[in-house]
Amino acid sequence: MKWFILVALFGLGLAQHNPHIKKGRTAIVHLFEWRWADIAAECERYLGPNGFGGVQISPPNEHIMLDNPWRPWWMRYQPISYNLCSRSGSEDELRDMITRCNNVGVNIYVDAVINHMCGASGGEGTHSSCGSWFDAGKKDFPSVPFSNCDFNDNKCRTGSGNIENYGDANQVRDCRLVSLLDLALEKDYVRGKVTDFLNVLIDMGVAGFRVDACKHMWPGDLAAVYGGLHNLNTKWWSAGSRPFIFQEVIDLGGESITTKEYVNLGRVTEFKYGAKLGTVFRKWNGEKLCYTRNWGEGWGFMSDGNAVVFVDNHDNQRGHGAGGAAIVTFWDPRPHKMAVAYMLAHPYGVTRVMSSFRWNRHIVNGKDQNDWMGPPSHSDGSTKSVPINPDQTCGDGWVCEHRWRQITNMVKFRNVVDGQPHSNWWDNQSNQVAFGRGNRGFIVFNNDDWDLDETLNTGMPGGTYCDVISGQKEGGRCTGKQIQVGGDGRAHFKISSRDEDPFVAIHAESKL
Ligand code: QV4
Ligand code: CA
């Protein structure tokens, strides 16, 4: 009897940890603020062919619209209803995107904002992405509908009604996060509306959810919502597949709420990962790359099977959320590429690559005055589509980190080495390290200020391999560096500290 209960609990607990990524694929990319039509095209022309496993999309439901040209990106974190028209496009465009991405093997994960509606001072009117009328002051959202009795204010005990002290779990869950009207998810009615919204998306073919602001919701309420979700659409997944759940909980330590309370419900974002990796690659606080020999649980991260990891996200790349100045973003391309490559080469966690838009960064006393700026837009406020340049980079302010050769090639590396153990570690007791993934891949980093010149055991079969960082294998030759692995698995690596990208990676499919 006991074992049966254990198996049942374990089975249930882990059901929503599986991202259901298609065979041979591993990584997710967050196409922050992209329009649905552009994501559909990107799945077909780039993500599918290059082995990406999935896309995290911006919130697809109706959100507040602030006056053009004041159109901050964060409007999308202020829901007005669960109608599916947003700054990224219409419901038809959303459905078309989901279908087209699924058809080329790329999953869609929806950013689900279910803790709150818009801010308390959101006003009254039809300034919303589908034009639905609402009154934030009266907490009236007739297109759901939610009314003033569907919010938490009666439970919140702070003077302002906002969260004032992150040391008090009750107010973190029951009060307003930066004045956002806090939904009473303990009510069956509210749970039902949220569950229906997510089920519409599951039936359309999404593979799961990034659940926003989970720290601000009680685990029991979330369990009820997740429990009511449909199985994934059997047009693309086997019967009985549960939607993937990954929960945004920022836990860098020192607060009353920890990720532990959420890991049995689904995966959880591991924010320590990017904060630490940024510190290591910046060589701050005395950190050195050689200390990452036991990267993962050894650094106090949650267990591998529970984690979603990333170098930066849409918040901390602009100073919102957590991680501070240590986070490495596209603004610092050299350490950013190295950190993303390290993440993609390392077996820990489900990995997510950030794909950003550029804004007029203007930092005064450590704070970016333009941290609100929305995506590249036309003069009428509508989001620009993503033009692709002849060299495959993106134009019009879209950064497209995921298309940078070094990053795309490391996404492929991760696919090639999937399931292989972390092996053949080497370091120079400083910032030069190397490690392999069984006999399928090997990567070497030089983040010191002097050259690396070493013969290392790669664990790879003998032969000539193309480095996939300085170039790649193309038409039977290498466009970048070439690495000769001997019959004994040893290879010589020379990486100048002045190289544009001071790291080298080879894998089974980059062999000539
Ligand atoms: C402001 C004041 C309030 C004041 C209010 C008065 O801060 O004290 O009461 O005005 O009207 C925006 C503004 C914010 C404003 C608020 C309400 O930035 O200044 O309040 O709107 O009008 C994003 C942005 C927020 C933005 C929010 C809603 O980051 O700046 O707030 O969207 O538009 C914590 C959480 C974590 C969270 C992280 C950022 O634990 O869950 O902060 N991360 C997620 C998302 C994030 C999003 C939210 C949660 C909220 O990743 O993008 O916040 O959905 O660590
Ligand atoms: Ca809440």
TrEMBL record:
Residues 423-511 form the Alpha-amylase C-terminal domain. Pfam families: Alpha-amylase, Alpha-amylase_C. It comes from the Eukaryota. Keywords: Calcium, Carbohydrate metabolism, Chloride, Disulfide bond, Glycosidase, Hydrolase, Metal-binding, Signal. CDD domains: AmyAc_bac_euk_AmyA. Belongs to the glycosyl hydrolase 13 family. This is Alpha-amylase. It comes from Pseudopleuronectes americanus. The gene is amy2A.
